[in-house]
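Q: Here's a chain of 365 amino acids. Please give me its 3D structure as tokens.
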Amino acid sequence: MNYEKEPLHISTPVPNGTYEVTVTISAHEDITFTILSQSRRFMVQDISMKKGESKDFTFNVSVCDYHKRDENYTKVNGVELDIMCDGDFTAVSAVSPVSIPTIYIAGDSTVTDQPAEYPYNPTSTYCGWGQMFPQFLNTGITVENHAQSGSTTDDFKQINFTAFCDKIKEGDFLIVEFGHNDQKIETLDAFGGYTENLKYFINFAREKGAVPIISSPINRIIFQEDGTLLNLLGDYREAVKSVCEEMDVPFIDLWTRTTEFFEAAGAVKAWDYFWGNGTDRDYTHTNDIGGNIVARFAADEIIKNNVTPIADLIKKDMIEVAMPEKDTNAKPLNTKEIEHLKTIGLVNIPKASHLADLDKDITNI
């Protein structure tokens, strides 16, 4: 759904904590709307109402300070709502504190709360799956997304983590997904520094009485001639699997889920789920459509791992994903994809034989 108008903003000053928020929407004409909280986290998406209808929408919001790389520690002083709507409406919100678990998310640009420009177009808007995830949860738990673009496990441990490491408590959860930027740093190889940092987050969460959940990174859509995706992050997937098995941690396998889905879509249709503006394309970062899909994969993986109470609170009727029909005539634009690889600056890549032809293009950069 595209929205032409700037969203309606509602701000309610409150201290850091967890809150139940009820938004009453009254439609003055037939409308479709989306409710966002904090830094563009999706609470309600593309809901239609008829003229004269009035409905309440209740969800949980976490208010928490954040500390991003290259920025000062930032205080967050309230519940911030934005309502995108294609017609005439009024909205009233009510906010009250609640004592419920928080899902803290640590990650990179594929997970983070990405901003949007208006008029809003979901295909040309970057989106991390963490900002889509809250809409798939019933009340009783809330999401606090601290993922940041460009972040490695080292960056996050030293900077972003400082904003909530003293807030995470017994009964909370810590979801961790990195790899895309660690892959650019020699010391953060999959079975070296990356693995050690994953273990650090696991041990820290457990010391606080929280439950750690580790996810493999989503795959990039760099297609080969045979229609399969280039295995650029497979070692990081295997490292996550190994750590989860060793330390008895829920393993969220987004690498496998995204690989299967985007290979099914094919080299052209896969673009529908990643940022694009009609001429330029991105092969790493999902748009709002793709972020929604990946968030559903994450929810389904949590159910498969029986991570309670999150699994019990997921809106199971909202997370089904139909596999796309493959365009068998689609051929990958390898030249452009290889040029994109050069901009990524990968260092730690699987030493598989099928990468041999690319070594001259992506090493020593």
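Q: Can you summarize the key feature?
A: The radius of gyration is 20 Å.
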